[in-house]
Specification:
Number of helices: 1
Shape: globular
Structural class: mainly beta
Number of strands: 11
CATH class: Mainly Beta
Strand content: 35-45%
CATH topology: Immunoglobulin-like
């Protein structure tokens, strides 16, 4: 290999490492006693709207959901509420060009893996993202998850 090829290979590897490591925070835990939920936050967007009552913030990331004891059929993604600095998210959206319903979101081989974003009605500090948490909206699993 020539020096030029080695340098090119090193540049490609360095770019790949930087591009793949853009997650701000990640956390996984079991909800409802039988569903593993992992959330990864990748970015934050504070709106420039200057409404004194509500200034929306959008937190972007992904959700992975897997049944631990039973096989998941669908999940109501709205059942997973993010909390940052004591502020609860108002709504969850699928990060897509088209509008996709978040209720009854289908699993593929007992796994849901989807890019999402949460809307908050207040400004969120980027520093507080590393200490985020999430909870189940409802303690009754039957209202949020259907199994096969």
């Amino acid at each position: 290999m020539t020096n030029k090829n080695i340098l090119l290979l090193l540049i490609v590897v360095a770019i790949s490492i930087v591009a793949c490591n853009n997650n701000i925070a990640s956390k996984g835990k079991t909800l409802w006693g039988e569903v593993l939920v992992k959330i990864t936050i990748s970015s934050l967007e504070n709106s420039s709207i200057s409404d004194s009552k509500k200034t929306p913030t959008f937190v972007y990331g992904s959700i992975e959901i897997k049944g631990e004891k039973k096989t998941i059929n669908t999940v109501d993604l709205e059942c997973i509420i993010m909390r940052i600095d004591g502020i609860q998210s108002k709504k969850l959206y699928i990060d897509s060009v088209a509008h996709i319903l978040t209720s009854n979101y289908p699993a593929n081989n007992n796994l849901i893996s989807v890019d999402v974003y949460w809307k908050f009605d207040k400004i969120i500090s980027p520093d507080s993202l590393k200490t985020f948490d999430y909870i189940a909206r409802d303690t009754d699993i039957q209202k949020c998850v259907s199994f096969k």
